[in-house]
TrEMBL record:
NCBIfam families registered for this protein in UniProt: TPR_END_plus
Protein known as: Tfp pilus assembly protein PilF
Keywords: Repeat, TPR repeat
InterPro entries reported in the protein's UniProt record: TPR-like_helical_dom_sf, TPR_rpt, Ycf3/AcsC/BcsC/TPR_MFPF
Pfam families in alphabetical order: TPR_1, TPR_16, TPR_8
TPR-type repeats, residues: 53-86, 121-154, 155-188, 223-256
Superkingdom of the source species: Bacteria
Keyword Transferase: no
Organism this protein belongs to: Geoalkalibacter ferrihydriticus
Amino acid sequence: MEEEYDDFDDYEYFEDEEDDERLELAQMALDRGESETALDLVEEYLEDHPFDVEALNVCAVAATNLDDEIKALALYQKALRLDPKNGAIHHNYGVLLDRLERRGEAQIHLRKALEFQPDFPEAYVNLGNVLDELGETDEALAMYDEALKRRPDSTDAYFNKGHALNRLGRFEDALACFSAALRMEPHDASCLNGAGYALAGLGRDEEAVRHYGRAIARDSGNPHFFFNRGLSLMRLGRFEEALNDYDAVLALDPDFFDALMEKANVLADLGRLEEARTLLLEAEQRDPASPEPPFYLALICEREGDHEGALGALEESLARDPDSIHTLNNKGSVLMDMGRLDEALGCFEAILERTDIYPLAHYNRACIFALQGKTADAVRALSQASRLEPHFLQDAAEDSDFDNIRHRSSFQKLLLRRQSQESGG
């Protein structure tokens, strides 16, 4: 009688097939956003194949999605020990390190990803994001351009490039980026918000409000969309609507400090000064070190004609943020209103020692010199202000501070010369 033996080779074949299927199912679950399912499947697979780099990567991505960063870090480190030239692993590890705000390390691994996979558009985008966070915005912009060379339809690259350009104040270029992204994804809420911000920066607040509205229609849970629309509405003088937006921001995020400040500001614009003051006291309790509550309190005091109160609040704000040019300018303006011209002049000259391109300081110096009857100094300062912002000449033509020198020929010539230049004569 012959004995029968199992064909172990066949069993191993079927086991391998089942394992491959399990790993494939894990990847499919991950692609569907079912990270818990993916994690269960891939961890079973790793029990039998602990050195499979692809499986370690899938497991790390799933763990990251489930906010288990410690597990994900350990998995990526193990995978890189097994395969140190794997660009995808370096990329994913770099993205996780960026998420953990370990940006120096993130930059190293994202650069390694590109060393091993130089045609990896996502790596260029994510490296650009890290560089931008590190203040290397010019290099970040170059990374976004590299991504777009390899994938011209990358909405992520256009979005992140537009975001960086907005922060640099290059609003025309930013708008072009967001417009390109919106041609591909016309309903993307973040791109609509970015385009709105660029439009607002260009002084096109009506268009900005429409873009913010479309962003909010797509994602009403993002407080930043309401906040940005509120700023544009304020500039348009639509204060009640702005107030509604700031209320929406604070309903979504009660700790949104800037929204609290802007709500106090708009309440003051509406003449609801006591409500604004109460809000500023609440803000002061939340962040006693912030220079903003006393800064806005000074504006309320000015509205009430309380110059001493305004001056005290501005000095408190400057004690908390001595480098604030805006606060120093407002202090100078209050001192002017109090007739303390020499002290006011000291404020404006202190600003110009830090930067020569703050036109309001030049204009305010011109006002002081005019009040003091110093025509040549006033004309010189007004000329400097108008070179930076031409509208100051029209302001001076109507400003009573210049009444003492209005009849002077040099003042008249300055106004006429600028008018001639504007008319192309």
